[in-house]
Amino acid sequence: MKKILAFSGSNNPESINELLLISAINKIQKGNVHHIQLTDYQIPIYSQEIEKNGIPQSIKEIFRFFIEADAFIITSPEHNGLPTSFFKNIIDWLSRIDQKFFGGKPVLLMSTSPGANGGASHLQILTKLLPIWGGNLVSHYSLGSFNNKYDHSNLQIADYDEDTRLSESIRILINSFSK
Question: Domain NADPH-dependent FMN reductase-like spans what residues (predicted)?
C-alpha cells in the first residue's frame, strides 16, 4: 500500500495550517496517510557545533519516515513572507543526512492564513527550493481568508470552490505516484 507522509511546518498547537492538513487527509482513503506532528520530536536548533555530536535521534526517525513515504503533503505557515523557523530548522537537520531528503518523490505543498494571500508568498520560495531537497512538486494549494472559508465543526473547507481546488490538488498528488 502506498503511503503519504503528512505534516505541518507549524509549532503552534492551534495552527490553522494543521487544520488545513486535516481537511486534506480526510479526503484520502484511510490507511494511506501517515500523519506526524513534528512538535512531538525534541529537535535542537541546528548548529555545526551540535552536529559534531551526531544527528539527533529524533531527526533520524523523521528521516526514516521520509524514506518509507511514497509522497508528501506539507502545510506550512508563512511568517513575514517566509517559512517558519521551526520548519526551516527541520529542513536544515534533514539536509545534513541527505541533501535530497525527499528522494525524488511527489509533494503537495499547502498553506493558509487569515489574510487573503493564504501564505502564497512563501509557497513560491518553497517551490523553488523543493528540487534542491529532492522534492518533486506536483501541486500546491493556498487558502486565503481561512476564518471565513473553514468549517471548524466538520474539519473541512466550507467554501465549495476552495474545497474543489483542494480535492483537485490531492487527486493530482495521488495520480502522480499511483501509476
Answer: 3-140
CA distance 82 to 38: 18
Quote the mean pLDDT of the chain. 95
DSSP E strands: which ranges in the chain? 4-8, 33-35, 71-75, 78-79, 82-83, 106-112, 136-143, 150-151, 156-157
Q: What is the pLDDT of residues 53-82, one digit of tens each?
A: 999 999 999 999 999 999 999 999 999 989
- Residues 123 and 129: their CA atoms lie apart, in Å, by 10
- Grid cell, residue 74, equals 506539507
Instruction: Check residue 4 and give its pLDDT.
Output: 97
Q: Which amino acid is at 135?
A: G
Could you tell me if 92 and 132 are in contact, meaning their C-beta atoms sit under 8 angstroms apart? no
Fold of 4-177: Rossmann fold (3.40.50)
**Which residue type, as a one-letter code, is found at position 124?**
Q
